[in-house]
Amino acid sequence: MREPLSYEIAHGAALAALEAGRAEGHQVCAVVVNRSGVTKVLLSDDGVGLLGVETARRKAYTSAVSGVPTAKFAAFAASPQMQVAPPHLVDANLLPVAGGVPIVTADGEVIGAIGVGGADDVTDDRIAHHARDSVTKIVA
Question: DSSP characters for 96-131?
């Protein structure tokens, strides 16, 4: 097992998300969690409401504990097999909406995740991927 997600990596990813959102004219919230889904960093731009903050947190949590992007988790949650046990009944923190991506080491270990909220799910997802990619080189 590698070292846990450092504050520097978490803060760098969250800051990259806010900057990417601003560059596109969006006010977003970025939450980075450790592998267990515990919040490590939360950065919220001016004007982001509680809904944006909470969805960002839950997207990060969902991606960290499932180990997959929340867009992929959303497709799985919508499948007929999952209708007998919807994810929110299993864990109320799970949010099957695009905008969360795992932070993974070079050898495939999930060490955390970033979730973005405040814009639409496609925009949140694009910004989350950008933010995660911005720290990929230092995750090693």
Answer: -SS-EEEEE-TTS-EEEEEEEESS-HHHHHHHHHHH
Read off the pLDDT of residues 95-139 as tens digits, 9 standing for 90 and up.
Answer: 999 999 999 998 899 999 999 999 999 999 999 999 999 998 888
Distance CA 26, CA 28 (A): 6
- The torsion angle over the Cα atoms of residues 49, 135, 59 and 24, rounded to 10 degrees, is 40
* 101, burial (CB in 10 Å: exposed 0-12, middle 13-18, buried 19+): buried
Task: Say what the pTM is.
Answer: 0.93
- Within 10 Å of residue 19's Cβ, how many Cβ atoms? 16
Tokens of 112: 């955390």
